[in-house]
Amino acid sequence: MAFDAAAYVPASPIQVLPAVEPLDAAGDLCPAWTAENPDRALALLFVAPRACAAVDVLVSL
After folding, report:
1. What is the tens place of the pLDDT at every residue in 11-24?
2. Mean of the pLDDT values across residues 19-41?
3. Backbone angles phi, psi at 45, to 5 degrees
4. Burial class (CB in 10 A: 0-12, 13-18, 19+), 17
5. Any idea of the CA torsion for 52, 55, 56, 61, to the nearest 10 degrees?
6. What are phi and psi of 59, to 5 degrees?
7. Can you give the pLDDT at residue 7?
8. In terms of Cα–Cα distance, which of 12, 56, 14 is closest to 31?
9. pLDDT(36) > 90
């Protein structure tokens, strides 16, 4: 018997996750947060590039 011929019922109902806003909808990075977390800020700017004060903070480090 093929596996797709059997009717399997999930043990729990499927959970629907809430929609997430795109990274572009988020505001500019805070320069103070960027100075404290340069690795995270650089990763975020790599994924969603934008011209903001955080770039100046990263360049000055």
Report:
1. 677 777 677 677 66
2. 82
3. -70, -25
4. exposed
5. 150
6. -70, -35
7. 73
8. 56
9. yes
